[in-house]
Design a protein that fits this description.
This protein is of the alpha/beta class. A 7-stranded mixed sheet has the order 3-2-1-4-5-7-6, sandwiched between helices. β1, α5 and β2 form a beta-alpha-beta unit. α4 packs across α13. The relative contact order is 0.14.
Length: about 350
């Protein structure tokens, strides 16, 4: 069966992978969510009851719990790069918050259209459709390769049976629609329109998480164009991308005192997992608006997406980790990815999430 020989305590160390598969990085991100979920409720930024099943740990669960959050994170840092788990946690939390807010009912006087569809591109082992508190009428569409979706559905079914999940979780899982699709080979908008339940005119929140670096730049542009055609006014888009300085000036993509050479290990791991990084973009100019950055201009040119924020893990550190007493020290601050929040065309509504982001053109 589908199996990834991942080091049992790391978050996605492909150095120890016996047989890398297309779901190798998906398991790595699930491991990071599971490590975070072991913290006490008042300290955790992500609570994913399904992550352990998605991660595919080879170590017995009782031993994992005995090892604790700190040891597992330290092992991950040693085998991938310092701060990798925190980067994945920050990314997950930011995307979670954006999805919940985009789908939430509109408050009195709020100029925003609630999204009625959640579209998850390159879903991997994402569990947002089952664990986030979004209204029950919101339909969830997950797009990924058939082999990855088959593995994810099997693991999710096992997790729900074993844990005897609540009625809310069961009903949430029932509204998920799986669309097996290889973005490199099929037209996304045509596939979505062909599904009888999908409404291309509805306001939709789209997540493109941990995906753009694995696609050629022209494929990213084509995907954004397709999303523009397949989503209605009021739609939102949340995406991540690799900071191009990882390749040209690694020290600029991490905190002061961080071992910048460690960033190259992550790209090498992806290469060994048969998932090489193909694309990256520089950040916006210092003090510049999100729409002025290279990725912001890409969004505007393909699908009429208006970038409202383009933020680093450093900003996420201050927004999420610092308030609960877990501020990441600069020497462990990995900023190889950036996070973009965009609105569809002239759709109304201000930015969500972190303060200080640009919300104007």
């Amino acid at each position: 069966g589908e199996d990834v020989g991942v080091c049992p305590l790391c978050s996605g160390c492909v150095t120890h992978m016996a047989a890398p598969t297309t779901s190798g990085t998906a398991r790595g991100v699930a491991k990071a969510r599971d490590i975070e979920s072991m913290l006490p409720p008042e300290l955790r930024l992500v609570d994913d009851p399904y992550a352990a099943a998605m991660a595919g740990w080879r170590t017995p669960r009782w031993l994992l719990r005995c090892s604790g959050h700190g040891l597992r994170q330290a092992i991950s840092d040693a085998l991938t790069c310092p701060g990798y788990v925190q980067l994945m946690v920050a990314r997950t939390r930011l995307f979670d918050d954006e999805v919940v807010r985009a789908c939430a009912p509109t408050a009195p006087g709020e100029a925003r259209t609630p999204c009625t569809q959640l579209l998850i591109l390159g879903a991997g082992f994402c569990t947002r459709g089952s664990r986030l508190p979004i209204p029950p009428h919101v339909r969830v569409y997950e797009v990924d390769q058939p082999s990855v979706q088959a593995a994810k559905r099997r693991l999710m079914a096992e997790a729900q049976r074993a844990a005897r999940k609540s009625e809310r979780a069961a009903s949430a899982s029932g509204r998920i629609v799986y669309l097996p699709l290889d973005l490199s080979e099929a037209a996304l908008d045509a596939a979505l329109r062909a599904h009888p339940g999908y409404d291309p005119a509805a306001p939709t929140v789209v997540t493109v998480e941990g995906l753009t670096q694995y696609m050629p730049a022209e494929a990213v542009a084509a995907t954004l164009e397709a999303l523009g055609r397949a989503t209605g006014p009021g739609s939102r888009l949340v995406a991540s991308y690799v900071d191009a300085r990882v390749h040209t000036d690694p020290a600029a993509a991490c905190g002061e005192g961080y071992p910048a050479h460690a960033l190259a290990r992550v790209a090498a791991f992806a290469e060994r997992a048969n998932e090489p990084w193909l694309s990256s973009w520089p950040p916006p100019p210092p003090g510049g608006r999100a729409a002025m950055g290279p990725f912001g201009r890409l969004l505007a040119a393909h699908g009429r997406w208006r970038a409202e924020r383009d933020e680093s893990a450093g900003e996420a550190n201050e927004a999420f980790f610092a308030p609960i007493g877990r501020r990441i020290p600069p020497s462990s601050l990995c900023m190889m990815e950036r996070f973009v929040v965009a609105a569809k065309g002239d759709s109304g509504g201000g930015g969500f999430g972190l303060d200080g982001g640009d919300t104007t053109e």
